[in-house]
Structures are given as C-alpha cells and as structure tokens.
Specification:
The protein is an all-alpha fold. 60% of the residues lie in helices and 3% in strands. The protein is flat and about 65 Å long.
C-alpha cells in the first residue's frame, strides 16, 4: 500500500466503520517506517479539534451573547466556559452587551468566540474585503487583550510574528493597521505604558520595520505615518533599533562561521 493510500485510510472517519471492517492497523505500520507522522495517523489532529469543538458547542448551554460592530450579528457562548477563558466576561456576566467585542467585525469576534473552545484559532479559508492575514491577526490580538483572554492573546501574537516572517509587511498594510486599529497611534502608545501586551506587539512590528528598513524608508506612505502617529512610530523604531542591528550582525556572523566550518568538514571528508 502506498503512503498516499495509507494517509487516506488513516484519515477516514471512524464513525462510518464497523468492527468487521477494522483489521490490521496499516496507518500505525506506516508510522513505524516513517511514512506517517503522529498527527497523520487516524483522524487528522485538526479534524479532532474541530469535531470536539463542535461537540462542545452543541452540548453546552450558550447563555451569553457577545456583540460585534454589526448590530445584526452576535455570537452565543456558554457562560461558564466563557468566564473561564475571559477575565472580562467573568467580571461582567450581567452586561455582555458592553463587551469590547462590539468594536470588532463579525469575522474577528467569531474567531474570538471559537477560541473559548480552543485558543489555537484558525483563519477562515477566505478573508473578507481584501483583508490580508496580518490585518486579521492584529484585531484578534487587540480584542483578546481587551477581553483579558491570555491564551488567545499569546497565540495571536505568535501568529502575528509568523505572518510577518512569512508574508512580510508593506507600508500600505502598516498604514491600514494604523488607521483601522490604532497601531502606533498616541492612544495605544499611552496604554502601552501600563499594558504590556500593547507594548510587546508594537515592539514586534518595530523590529520588523527596522530589520526591513529598505522596504519602508523613503516611501511616501511611511513618511506620512511618521507624522500621523505623532512620533510614536519613530519612538518604537528607535527603541528597538540598536538591539535589532546588533542581533542581526551576530546572527550573520554565526551563520558565516558555521558555513566555514561546514565547508572545512566537507573538504576533509
């Protein structure tokens, strides 16, 4: 049996099988020989998470409704589980209509409410209105901070970093984040003095900007942002610049030394 066939068998739904149809554990054998990872054996890991999340959603009583910035759209969540995931909800069980979610779009609030069942959320297959991944992860992060949902906040920040590293950031995307979510604006910078997550996320973006300064310096959009953020963007880029430059030089030096060692070992062998 090929690896592809084994994977197909491994991801088949157990709900459709009878005991007479289950014989040798072929997927396990392919795992032993390195053809399948643990996550690929039987039902896919993501499918298990989704199945359990839907099971919880159907079985638990959803007594709270969290608003969005669309008056006709809200999302029901189970009281106890939501209170356990969010300190804001725990402290405001009688006034969920005042939740910070009311400032965010339905797609963001949907991911926030889904995270009550599993904080390692997934982006939808299709993003609305031409939004990019980074323009969705940022509001999820900001909403998580306001809702005091620490696990979601930590995952969202990881996803922001991963997306910046993979997709990069254009000056236009940065402008959208400033305009739509207040990134580097005076209000958020003032909050960042006492709210560490706001400070962390702006340090992450400033680190990316300094590390890729050739993409930003000299562009009209970035030049305008230096003015519209009233010095906050410049403050953060200056704050991280020394460490960014020093760290990049050290990383490049280590990589160069490693390449030399590998070349020497190749010659000797």
């Amino acid at each position: 049996m090929s690896s592809a066939t084994a994977k197909q068998k491994a991801t088949a739904s157990d709900d459709k099988l009878t005991p007479r149809q289950v014989l040798a554990d072929v997927a396990y054998l392919h795992h032993i020989f390195g053809d399948l990872s643990v996550g690929e054996m039987d039902i896919d890991d993501v499918a298990i998470y989704k199945k359990e999340r839907e099971h919880l959603r159907l079985k638990l009583h959803c007594g709270l409704s969290l608003p969005t910035n669309n008056d006709s759209v809200s999302f029901a969540v189970p009281d106890a589980l939501a209170a356990a995931a969010s300190s804001w909800i725990e402290a405001n069980l009688k006034t969920p209509q005042e939740a910070p979610t009311k400032k965010y779009s339905p797609i963001v609030v949907r991911m926030v409410t889904d995270s009550i069942y599993n904080p390692m959320y997934n982006l939808p297959d299709k993003l609305p209105n031409g939004k990019t991944a980074i323009e969705v992860h940022v509001p999820v992060f900001l909403c998580a901070v306001e809702m005091s949902m620490e696990a979601l906040e930590l995952f969202a920040l990881k996803f922001i970093k991963a997306t910046l590293a993979k997709d990069g950031l254009t000056p236009e995307q940065l402008r959208n984040l400033v305009q739509d979510y207040g990134l580097f604006k005076a209000g958020l910078c003032q909050k960042a003095v006492t709210v560490l997550p706001y400070h962390k996320v702006m340090c992450t973006f400033a680190t990316h900007i300094v590390a890729h300064e050739e993409d930003f310096d000299g562009t009209d959009v970035y030049g305008d942002l230096s003015l519209t953020t009233k010095g906050c963007l410049g403050y953060y880029t200056n704050l991280v610049k020394k460490d960014v430059k020093t760290t990049i030089r050290a990383i490049k030096k280590d990589k160069a030394s490693m390449d030399i060692r590998n070349d020497n070992e190749s010659v000797q062998t």
